[in-house]
Amino acid sequence: xxxxxxxxxxxxxxxxxxxxxxxxxxxxxxxxxxxxxxxxxxxxxxxxxxxxxxxxxxxxxxxxxxxxxxxxxxxxxxxxxxxxxxxxxxxxxxxxxxxxxxxxxxxxxxxxxxxxxxxxxxxxxxxxxxxxxxxxxxxxxxxxxxxxxxxxxxxxxxxxxxxxxxxxxxxxxxxxxxxxxxxxxxxxxxxxxxxxxxxxxxxxxxxxxxxxxxxxxxxxxxxxxxxxxxxxxxxxxxxxxxxxxxxxxxxxxxxxxxxxxxxxxxxxxxxxxxxx
Length: 276
Prior knowledge:
By secondary structure, the chain is mainly α. Helices cover about 50% and strands about 5% of the residues. The protein is built from nine helices and three strands, in the order αααααβαβαβαα. It has helices at about 5-10, 20-30, 40-60, 70-100, 110-155, 175, 190-195, 235, 260-265, and strands at about 160-165, 180-185, 205-210. Strands 2-1-3 form a three-stranded antiparallel β-sheet, with no helix packed on it. Helix 2 packs across helix 5 (about 110-155), helix 3 (about 40-60) packs antiparallel against helix 4 (about 70-100) and helix 3 (about 40-60) runs parallel beside helix 5 (about 110-155). About 35% of the residues are buried.
């Protein structure tokens, strides 16, 4: 069984850290106006960030406390973790924004129980369904970021890299097209197609001493094989989720008037370096 498959299986039944108490605190706060997109629930933010950071540690194989200060592992884990905190702030903003928008409905804004029923759906989406996929992406991206550190260190002896799927019947057709592609480690191909290349992607790479380079111009529709959100290299870009550009994660699509607020992490604290 592939390493990522083992990691996914180990955490597939891991419960969401969010509870009914969390839902009641956030939804009630939105209802009475104590929680707004400009006064976000800090506890929800930290709970999301801690959960996803745990995914980074599982994928990377160590946490930042185990890394030597200033080492490549320490610096990589610092960057990945900061990305998770920025992502978690944007996620908290979007969840509160979605709940707040419910109050624009004439029926919901005067009926507490009807509002709570709709807010519960939003809470479930953000903190159960979405969070599980995000957690697995944190595991996969950090696993591949750690792998990229090794690839860079060994590229003089192992200068070629081969894309590899798991090879079972669950492999997506688009990923099957990428299977066995061989390119030099420094080829720009890996800036876009280095795994993971989708939610719950199990693909990996293999380092080679030599190998015939693949002519990707012969592969039909290769540019459409990977969702734009995943067209990156977690090891080179040092992130799990895209924060900028037209292909950024939709959590970072904020209201026009809130862009300056987003620049200060939506008013939520970032962990201090060395305390991650």
